[in-house]
């Protein structure tokens, strides 16, 4: 039987590349901050917080819709919500309208298609859960850098400059058209294809798996769920702190460096985060959960030490190395979540189980706030960096508690 699952993987990668645009808020918001000079940083930052909340909600709804609606309907619905969200945001003259358009509509749309794509591709690749998660999530991670760069190139900013409004409309329309086309072609495997795929992964028993296939209620009753959930919050919060304070760390280590250079250096985190997602997704398939999680924690802690050395020696070169390494190891988080939920708790209830595990974002998103508070308290980003190092070490301890997946 000939499978075209690689074709579906390409479609999924394209859709997540567009859906990941919500993570480019730090770039998208720059022209808004220059235009609305009376809006505070906190008001603009709240947009992303709301976006993450509705991302989790959309992910939950996408999980519940899996198997009940054709996946193309979910993709099309997401495209319509993106179009509506960006259009509403383009008309914003108050934070409330921005929160509704970008925060609620776009955040929900991103979570909806995120779960739909990963759930469908998990069914297409039961034998390579980590690898396919890594590849798809690479696209999601790359979006903030590559699409953000396009936005910057075509969207001048300044007081009274409204170019961002037309850019928002264009982005909404572009995503809607891409999702329309991809939705026509994208699908889950049928009964015959599922039977064939089951043979690919069922021919060899995985010693690392418990062999469970349980629903969400049973999953959340297991200690393994809560231990792994804590690991995701620990690493996710540290990653959010790194991303949120990256520009400030680079400025402190290289005072006088041009803003364009600072933005490029900070962008290295996104690039190597995407590369790390593929690497660690594949590592999960080959070596299992424990090796992957320990490597992520140890590598992230070591990367923080490089950044500490960069601040101590005022070396921008060391900052670059630290950002490359930290972005790479932080990339191990998301594919591990996807692969772990499927391998530990089974494929039948994966869409909903996966969305519940992703609720870690509600707490991890405060990592950026913690990083900012540490800077305010100490007057230097070195305190934030020690928080990153401690998080990596704590995550290793949590990993040791998770004896079986």
From TrEMBL:
TM regions (residue ranges): 7-26, 46-66, 73-90, 96-118, 130-151, 163-186, 225-250, 262-284, 291-310, 316-333, 354-375, 381-402
Membrane topology per record: Multi-pass membrane protein
InterPro entries linked: MFS, MFS_dom, MFS_trans_sf, Proton-linked_MCT
Keyword annotations from UniProtKB, A to Z: Membrane, Transmembrane, Transmembrane helix, Transport
PANTHER family: MFS DOMAIN-CONTAINING PROTEIN (PTHR11360:SF304), MONOCARBOXYLATE TRANSPORTER (PTHR11360)
Domain Major facilitator superfamily (MFS) profile positions: 5-405
GO cellular component labels: plasma membrane
Location(s) in or outside the cell: Cell membrane
Protein name, UniProt field: MFS transporter
Organism: Candidatus Enterocloster excrementipullorum
Top-level taxon in the UniProt lineage: Bacteria
Gene Ontology MF terms in the entry: transmembrane transporter activity
Pfam families per UniProt: MFS_1
